[in-house]
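Work Package 4 report. The design task specified in the project plan requires that, given a folded chain encoded as structure tokens, an amino acid be chosen for each position. We show below one input record used in the internal validation round.
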């Protein structure tokens, strides 16, 4: 399982770097990082039982034999039949034919199966990418009552659910605005409506890092006062009539519209399961909460002893999109592979992992997440496109994280032996963040650009090598920031599971960080190339003079004093003085002349003075469809006019899971 790799690498101390060539040094650290990380190893040849499901077959019935000619009608019935086979130790595949399966709140618990089930394989597979598992119901337009009041036309219907407010358990860091505590979602012709609050609450957070806040009901606002085109609202309390109100966009013919209302709190949960495959499935419209346990799909559970709660998990070519909370949660798992998945358009987070051993993520994307959190004024703390905790032995190849209203890719607390290669992090709040982790981290051939606060952030982490990457502050914040607080610790929960310690608190500082063969650029005068964010000035100075190594990096910025060698920009200096301070070597100050970095074309012009190094860098043009989609999504999130002439974002919502999008 690669355990020896995580334990044996040690640290990359500054004076341990030898004088080998660049290729030899990178080969050394890359081999260390990737050694023995095999992730999921599932023998699908063991499958002896096939269960067919086809919701669109007129002969389908949950009482059928589940053959290809007599398929079941629902995934829930297929799971119940699969449990019978697993209990006999028979590996089983569920094949779903294309269709929209409006099901959810399905659970398969390994502790409720027989011991024979442990070694059996369970595959749940879509026949192609058009299999959708949705937590939303269709409510026909004829079932709604038309209301015309004060010049507003909207529609109402009885509301039979009480989802309530849930602001999370992060104490003073819970979302300040109650709109982020809600779970309701409505889609009209595939377009999401924005929720407005009819029932008003004040919210008070605890004065600590944990616990839920308190709510004080302030009263009810009539729908015609707050409902407008593109919005909906809920009257959940009995005294307010238990109604849902919606007002679609003006161009929609409501009588012919498809109205989908999210009613399922989650879609699928696997508790203490082994040898599970999810393939070619789309998980959408789960009315889940901000909490970790509210993911649309979860492998766990979250609660329990500090032990592994799942093993040998493969998820490939799946979409987790337009869920209110999180798309996927991986909790206390080992040997996990994520390949070719999309975790996009989720209300808070695409995917999160807590206590993960031996994992490979290849060719996934976490784009356009945290629209709900942004609406409720929470963009960081516990949220990201992908957030990774307590993970040892991980390889992250070809990951894309674009347009998140939060951090793009965040390794937070206790991560060891992580290799990140060919990452694209573009226009998030923060791009790539490494925090409270001993590493080592290998970041290679990656593009980090135009994030709103910072492209690359290191907060109390060490054993880091960043090589052959482009870090470019276009119109956003700084290129690189470091934080050197003196009081950060983490609980080594994976070490405790593996019997290496008793789960003690481990202090963590900045340390042993190497930048080599990178292109680090700032486009605006207000941006820094490398600067301290906050923390202890003495620790920061010690880090720069004793633990930081720079070699063969190319730099450029409009202002030359864009390097910080003191606390919070109090002493900005130029490259020569920076090199004298840090002992960086073989550095070059040269404007790269990108083709068009403002529009995310990071190729070098033919007359670029650094054209000779282009093949060693991730110079590339981000495809125009992605950029249009990102800009229109951000306009929708920020309540700005959307240019429908380019037709990418809103048109794609209707057919988000079709073959053209995939």
């Amino acid at each position: 399982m690669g355990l020896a790799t995580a334990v044996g690498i040690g640290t990359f101390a500054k004076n341990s770097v030898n004088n080998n060539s660049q290729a030899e040094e990178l080969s050394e650290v890359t081999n260390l990082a990737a050694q023995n990380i095999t992730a999921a190893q599932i023998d699908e040849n063991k499958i002896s039982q096939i269960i067919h499901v086809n919701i669109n077959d007129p002969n389908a019935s949950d009482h059928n034999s589940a053959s290809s000619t007599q398929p079941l009608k629902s995934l829930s019935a297929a799971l119940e039949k699969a449990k019978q086979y697993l209990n006999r130790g028979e590996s089983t595949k569920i094949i779903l034919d294309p269709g929209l399966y409006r099901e959810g709140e399905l659970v398969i618990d390994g502790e409720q199966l027989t011991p024979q089930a442990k070694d059996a394989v369970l595959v749940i597979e879509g026949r192609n990418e058009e299999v959708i598992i949705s937590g939303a119901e269709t409510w026909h337009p004829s079932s709604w009552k038309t209301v015309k009041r004060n010049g507003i036309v909207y529609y109402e219907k009885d509301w039979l659910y009480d989802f309530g407010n849930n602001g999370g358990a992060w104490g003073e860091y819970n979302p300040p605005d109650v709109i982020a505590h809600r779970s309701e979602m409505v889609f009209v012709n595939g377009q999401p409506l924005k929720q407005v609050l009819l029932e008003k609450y004040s919210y008070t957070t605890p004065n600590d890092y944990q616990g839920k806040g308190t709510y004080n009901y302030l009263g009810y606002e009539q729908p015609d006062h707050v409902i407008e085109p593109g919005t909906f609202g809920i009257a959940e309390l009995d005294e307010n009539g238990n109604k849902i109100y919606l007002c679609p966009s003006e161009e929609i013919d409501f009588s012919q519209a498809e109205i989908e209302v999210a009613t399922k709190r989650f879609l699928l949960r696997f508790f203490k399961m082994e040898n599970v495959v999810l393939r070619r499935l789309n998980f959408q419209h789960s009315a889940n909460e901000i909490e970790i346990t509210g993911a649309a799909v979860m492998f766990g559970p979250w609660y329990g002893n500090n032990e592994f709660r799942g093993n040998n998990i493969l998820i490939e070519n799946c979409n987790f999109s337009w869920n209110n909370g999180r798309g996927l949660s991986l909790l206390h798992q080992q040997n996990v592979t994520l390949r070719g998945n999309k975790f996009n358009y989720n209300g808070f987070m695409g995917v999160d992992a807590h206590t993960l051993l031996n994992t490979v993520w290849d060719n996934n994307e976490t784009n356009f997440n945290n629209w709900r959190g942004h609406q409720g004024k929470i963009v960081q703390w516990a949220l990201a496109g992908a957030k990774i905790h307590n993970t040892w032995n991980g390889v992250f190849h070809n990951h894309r994280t674009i347009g998140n209203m939060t951090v793009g890719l965040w390794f937070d607390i206790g991560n060891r032996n992580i290799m990140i290669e060919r990452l694209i992090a573009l226009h998030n709040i923060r791009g790539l963040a490494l925090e409270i982790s001993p590493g080592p981290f290998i970041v290679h051939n990656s593009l980090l650009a135009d994030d709103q606060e910072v492209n690359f952030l290191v907060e109390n982490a060490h054993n880091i090598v960043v090589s052959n990457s482009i870090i470019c502050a276009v119109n956003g914040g700084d290129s690189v920031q470091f934080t050197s607080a003196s009081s950060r610790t983490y609980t080594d929960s994976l070490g405790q599971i593996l019997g290496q310690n008793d789960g003690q608190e481990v202090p963590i500082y900045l340390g042993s960080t190497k930048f080599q063969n990178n292109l680090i650029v700032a486009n605006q005068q207000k941006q820094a190339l490398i600067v301290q964010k906050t923390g202890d000035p003495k620790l920061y100075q010690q880090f720069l003079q004793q633990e930081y190594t720079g070699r063969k990096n190319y730099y450029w910025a409009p202002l030359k004093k864009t390097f910080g060698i003191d606390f919070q920009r109090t002493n900005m200096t130029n490259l020569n003085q920076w090199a004298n301070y840090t002992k960086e070597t073989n550095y070059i100050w040269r404007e790269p002349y990108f083709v068009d970095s403002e529009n995310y074309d990071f190729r070098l012009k033919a007359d670029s003075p650094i054209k000779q190094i282009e093949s060693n860098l991730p110079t590339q043009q981000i495809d125009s469809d992605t950029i249009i989609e990102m800009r229109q999504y951000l306009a929708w999130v920020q309540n700005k006019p959307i240019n429908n002439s380019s037709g990418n974002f809103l048109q794609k919502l209707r057919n988000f899971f079709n073959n053209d999008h995939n």
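Residues 1-33, 644-662 have pLDDT under 50 and may be disordered. Validation will be extended to a larger panel in the next phase.
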